TrEMBL record:
Residues 1-23 are annotated as: Disordered. The keyword Coiled coil applies. One of its GO terms (biological process) is late endosome to vacuole transport via multivesicular body sorting pathway. Residues 46-73 form a coiled coil. This is Charged multivesicular body protein 6. Keywords: Coiled coil, Endosome. Its main location: other. The lineage of its organism: Eukaryota, Viridiplantae, Chlorophyta, core chlorophytes, Chlorophyceae. Belongs to the SNF7 family. Gene3D superfamilies: ESAT-6-like (1.10.287.1060). One of its GO terms (cellular component) is cytoplasmic side of plasma membrane.
Amino acid sequence: MFSRLFGGGNKGPTVPQPDKNSASAATIDAMQASALLQRCMDAYDLLALGEREEQLEKKKLLLERKINDEMDKAREFTKQKKKSQALMCLKKKKMYEQQLERLDALVSRRLGRQAPLHRAQAALVLLKRSGDA
C-alpha cells in the first residue's frame, strides 16, 4: 500500500548505458556536456552576471559611504551632548554593516557560480574544435 503512495515498487524500464570505451560514449558525453552547458547558460547568462556584479559593487560603495556618514553624525551628536541621537546613528551604522556583510557573501557566492560556467564554456569550445578537426 505504501509503495503505491510513495512511489516504491516497479521503477519502469531502464535505459542501457553505453560502453565507456566506445566512440559513441565519447559522443554521448560531449552531447551531455553541451546540454548541461546550455542549461547553465540559460539559467546564468555570463553577461548578466557581470552586470549584476557591477550593480552589487555600486551598492557596496553606497553602503560604505552610508556607514561613514552615520559615524560622522554620531561623532557630531556626541560633541553636542545628544546621546540618544548618537546611539540611533550607531544603530543605523550597525544595520548598514550587516547589510554589507550579506552583500559580500552574495558576491562571493556569485563568483563561485561564475567560475564553473567559465570552465564549462571553455570545455565546450574545446569539444566543438575537436569535433571539427
